[in-house]
Design brief:
It is a single chain. This protein is mainly β. Helices cover about 10% and strands about 35% of the residues. It has a 4-stranded antiparallel sheet with strand order 1-2-3-4. Strand 2 and strand 3 (about 80-85) form a beta hairpin. Helix 2 runs antiparallel to helix 3 (about 155-170).
Length: about 375
């Protein structure tokens, strides 16, 4: 089957599995982690079409998984969200008001969570992931960017307005690829072409935030995580940024690598890990001022990571690898993984790892 081109995948741009899978679903197999040109996003009508409730949802491609207290919640293709109350041994499908692919989710406690995805969608749940409501979509986000640009002053106003009008004209074709909430009220959503919005009221309203990010090339933003002292962003073409003013502004960090980073996490001992293309991972013990390369032993792109309750750092790859570090991210050892591309990982309440990927969800011993 022929795969249509998409502007997110121009030559030289490399996408994480969350973007490749979500765009390629239904259009033939994508070569994850390479300069693939998957199908165009689904129709904007999907923003108003609830996800189909079906037994086949249990075998859908899943792109995100996380914990809501003792419950696990996962999200993926065509708006499918699943939740499990038995540590990932069985799953139920949630009620979701959209049928666009979802790329990331996060819970701040056992009941309040958010999910983001294609066509600029942002969903919220207040019952631990059983039911969801739409808080934002790409049409609304573009209108907010235009309104802010028109209200701005200075020599860059005309360019900002022109860029915002093009964003409106493009329609909701730009996905959100990650999110970060540090409380039930304050959070960020981010994604393609430096798109970022911030909320201070739990998603009831949103403010464009990309003007506060030092990303003049408009590179894709793939990952965002916070520590007690700072918030970090990772993106394509070696982009690393840090905020030390509680998200008020993000400045560039020195990067040891020019390839794409697909995520960043903080180990229990305080070290940062930035990971991404072709198995590359880098570690910093000085808040990103300097980095040293970590030997991962894999050549496939690292798609996601988490820190377990005992401090073990986990990375998973698009080749199905599961890597564990018990020394604060200094070294990694391969564990029994899968033969399928992985997009996300979380720890279940019984201590097991649950991974999400092309064939759904599975527990890893």
């Amino acid at each position: 089957m022929m795969v249509r081109s998409n502007p997110l995948f121009t030559p030289g741009r490399v996408a994480p599995l969350t973007m490749v899978l979500a765009l390629a679903l239904g259009a033939g197999a994508a070569n994850a982690g390479t300069d693939a040109r998957p199908a165009a996003p689904t129709s904007p009508a999907a923003l108003g079409q609830p996800a189909l409730v079906t037994p086949k949802a249990l075998h859908a491609a899943m792109l995100a998984v996380g914990a809501a207290g003792k419950r696990l919640v996962a999200a993926g293709e065509r708006g499918i969200i699943l939740y499990s109350d038995d540590a990932g041994k069985s799953w139920r499908q949630a009620a979701v008001p959209v049928s666009v692919s979802l790329t990331a989710l996060q819970f701040v406690d056992g009941i309040n969570g958010w999910a983001v995805g294609h066509q600029g969608v942002v969903l919220h749940t207040s019952d631990g992931g059983a039911t969801w409501t739409k808080q934002l979509d790409g049409i609304q986000a573009a209108a907010l960017v235009l309104r802010e640009a028109e209200a701005s002053f200075g020599p860059e106003r005309d360019k900002a307005v022109a860029d915002a009008r093009r964003l409106v004209d493009d329609g909701p074709d730009k996905p959100f690829l990650d999110l970060y909430f540090d409380s039930p009220t304050t959070g960020y959503v981010l994604g393609a072409y430096n798109m970022m919005l911030r909320t201070s009221d739990g998603g009831a309203s949103w403010q464009p935030w990309q003007s506060r990010v030092a990303n003049p090339k408009g590179l894709h933003l793939y990952g965002m995580r916070g520590t007690a002292d700072a918030i970090y962003l990772a993106g394509e073409q070696g982009l690393l940024l840090r905020s030390t003013d509680k998200g008020g502004s993000f400045s560039a960090l020195p990067s040891p690598y020019k390839g794409s980073y697909f995520g960043v996490l903080s180990a229990r001992g305080g070290a940062l890990l930035a990971y991404g293309l072709r198995g590359n991972a880098f570690r910093s013990t000085d808040q990103g001022a300097s980095w040293s390369q970590v030997a991962t032993g894999v050549q496939t792109s690292l798609a996601a990571g988490t820190v377990m309750a005992d401090g073990t750092v986990v990375l998973v790859s698009q080749g199905g690898d599961v890597l564990l570090s018990r020394d604060d991210g200094r070294t990694f050892a391969a564990q029994a993984g899968t033969a399928l591309p992985l997009a996300a990982v979380a720890q279940a309440s019984d201590g097991a790892l649950v991974v999400a990927g092309l064939r759904g969800l599975r527990r890893v011993p």
